[in-house]
User: Fold this.
Amino acid sequence: MADIKAFKGLRYSAAAGDLAQLCCPPFDVIGDAERQALLDMNPNNIVRLELPNPRGASSEDIGVYGAARACLNNWLAKGVLAEDRGENFYVYGMDFTYKEALYSLKGFVALVKLEHFDKGIILPHEETLSRDKTDRFNLITATGCNFSQVYSLYSDEDGAVYSLIDGASSGEPDSAFTDKGGVRHKLWRVWEEGVISAVTAKMANKKLFIADGHHRYETALEYMKFVRENKVDIGTSGYIPMLLVNLENPGLVVFPTHRIVRDLPRYSHEETAARCAEYFDITPRLTREKAESSSYEACKSGKNAFVLYGGGGGYTLMVLKDAGIMTAVMPDAHNYLRNLDVSVLHSLVLEKILGIDKANTDAQINITFARNADDAVAAVEQKRANCCFLLNSTRVSEIRNVALTGGKMPQKSTYFYPKPTTGMVMNRIFK
Assistant:
């Protein structure tokens, strides 16, 4: 099962500046404007290494990755970044507010041995996008460093692992800061051999479910193969740093990722709603509040539901009439995957009715994704999109069940909140 080990983390020194000005969000949620703002705030911001390639640039522009390597070497030489002594685990906590309630999430960062998915030890739940994997491969090849962690979940029903890491982080954190979204990020370095060996032993019988970081994990598998074929020194290329959080953690919050449909040459909102009526009970001209609350209630009652918005005359509630139709549409899939709202949307509406197939989605030709429903709605109202679909959150138990049965949700099906920051601790594959 899961093979984990401690490592010598690479971290910012005090000379680098305020940690709040050095860390950044995950690479795939940073736009070009935010990237530049982070660099303007502090030129030592980790975004210079984690996202050297602006979003508009080609992932084939190898020069930017070489620049990242030169920057890393410069920071190491100047002491901006320094490697910790000894082998460590790193307990990582996030305190945040969601819907006026206070939450606290705590896991730990360790190196995890890379395993191919067919072994059933590390399990994905989402499809990936080719462009992001090319970008990540070029970056890791150039720098020989992991600047961020894959976010993964494990079952800990008796709380044995959590008790160990919680006890090891009872004092003041080694580093902490509050980001602009109000999330408090905290990190404790754990070097006690007794704790490390106890956690390692208890994790040995666990399966790991990738929550966030599928692109980074699949890239790491390719990089491991590349290293073995081209290098004598393999370093830690057979491992990847992961933030490991127990499935039972009450701080786990999952947001939906909404779908924005754009640039369809002959889109008609009325025709789309009429065609959807073959499979869905349609309730048009609702307020957004009524549509979203009704969709949520339908979801709670075990039905598949989401909201269609095409601008103008209100929001349309769509509730699947008969879940049995999904057996014919996805005959080879497990019921856990068939019964997801996002599976229903992609297979029945996006593919069957609007003609947006998987290749189109992968290339993001006619579909893009929005974490915030307001952004999806604004795209329609500003005439930048034909329509959008507002989804309910996927439950953690559904993610686990899909992964256990070998299924993969469509790309960008889940959004775990809050996102672990990038820059608290990193891993050098080659010293």
About this structure: The longest strand covers residues 101-113.
